[in-house]
Automatic annotation (TrEMBL), chain A:
Its main location: membrane. It comes from Rheinheimera pacifica. Belongs to the CPA3 antiporters (TC 2.A.63) subunit F family. The chain crosses the membrane at residues 6-22, 34-54, 60-83. Keywords: Antiport, Cell membrane, Ion transport, Membrane, Transmembrane, Transmembrane helix, Transport. It is a multi-pass membrane protein. This is Multicomponent K+:H+ antiporter subunit F. GO terms for cellular component: plasma membrane. The keyword Ion transport applies. It comes from the Bacteria. GO terms for molecular function: sodium:proton antiporter activity. It is found in: Cell membrane.
Length: 89, 122
């Protein structure tokens, strides 16, 4: 039963990623695109964790943690650059 | 694996997956940026919490308890408001349009003025 549930959640998150991709491509303004990228990295963390559940291996959490940290730093860096014209003043 | 633990894991995974999907639907369907920000910052963070909670239960029954999931959950809960704050400041800087139904527009103008008056660092 759990395998079917994991496949269903895989499908849900893939649809969510496609919706984010639509907003990333269409987004009328730059903050919209940054927000879509931010959501996409969070959803990809969910995908990696689900793959780890499917393979029954706790190895994938390191990758998820790495993506979480780098994604947050990149979002803040892009926002800072747009706000001030420089990342570290 | 015990029977009822499997149900608990399935429940948390489905809850998390639905919240992630709802957050992305909100990101796609809402009319202006100030409304769009609500979906990913609230619903998606809660959905990630659900998925990671399911993962904690799953690996607990396999005898491999790890703190990595808790670490990811806490990290996401801390960083989501910060990135939302930076995004809303960027939106104020760009003077994005709002639709008529958006509430709190006077706050938007006040914050824009405050940010505009900010002096550059020496």
């Amino acid at each position: 039963m759990l395998d079917n549930v994991i496949m269903l959640v895989f499908a849900m998150i893939s649809i969510a990623l496609l919706l984010n991709l639509y907003r990333l491509l269409r987004g009328p303004s730059i903050p919209d695109r940054i927000l879509a990228l931010d959501t996409m990295y969070i959803n990809s963390i969910a995908l990696i964790i689900l793959y780890g559940l499917l393979m029954e291996s706790p190895l994938y959490f390191e990758a998820a943690l790495l993506i979480a940290m780098l994604g947050f730093v990149s979002t803040v860096a892009v926002c800072k650059f747009l706000l001030r014209g420089d990342i570290i003043e | 694996m015990e029977h009822w633990i499997e149900w608990v894991v399935a429940f948390f995974l489905l809850l998390g997956g639905s919240f992630v999907l709802i957050g992305s639907i909100g990101l796609t369907r809402m009319p202006d940026f100030f409304m769009r920000l609500h979906g990913p910052t609230k619903a998606t963070t809660l959905g990630m919490g659900g998925i990671l909670l399911g993962s904690i239960f799953f690996f607990y029954t396999h005898g491999e308890t790890s703190v990595h999931e808790l670490l990811i959950t806490i990290f996401l809960l801390i960083t989501a408001p910060i990135s939302a704050h930076m995004l809303i400041k960027t939106a104020l800087h760009y003077k994005l349009k709002t639709i008529d139904k958006t509430t709190g527009k006077e706050n938007i103008h006040a914050a824009q003025q405050k940010q505009h008056d900010r002096k550059p660092l020496p």
